Amino acid sequence: MKIKNLPLYVFLQVDADGETDLDFSELSGVSWCNERVFETDQRYISYDAVIAILNKIDILTCNAFVKTLKSNAKFKGSTFVNPLDSLKKE
Q1: How far is it, in rounded angstroms, from Cα 15 to Cα 43?
Q2: Long-range pairs of 70-75 with CB within 8 A, sequence gap ≥ 24
Q3: Cα(35)–Cα(43) distance, rounded to whole angstroms?
Q4: How many CB atoms lie within 10 A of CB 13?
Q5: Over the stretch 3-19, which tens digit does the pLDDT of each residue have?
Q6: Between 20 and 30 A from 44 (CA), which of 54, 80, 82, 90?
Q7: Which is it for the CA torsion 53, 56, 62, 68, positive or negative?
Q8: Domain residue ranges in the chain
C-alpha cells in the first residue's frame, strides 16, 4: 500500500501538561497532529524525508567537490567524468 501526501513531520501528543517524564515504550494513548497543538508536542520527522535530505546534501557536497577539482585541474584537454552524473534523477 502506498499513501499519498505524507507530511514531512507530525507532532506526537503524549503529555499535554508537560509535567511528567515519560517512556514512549510504556505509553498506550498517543495521538498525533500535522501541527503543534500543545507546547509539549514532540516533532517526529519522517525517516524517508531525512534520508532524501541527506542524499541531496551528499550530492550537493560531492558536486561542489567535483567543481573544485575541475577548477583546480592543472592540465587541459582531459575529460573529467563526474561519477554522480548517473545518479541524478532531476
Answers
A1: 13
A2: none
A3: 9
A4: 17
A5: 888 888 899 887 767 66
A6: 90
A7: negative
A8: 9-73
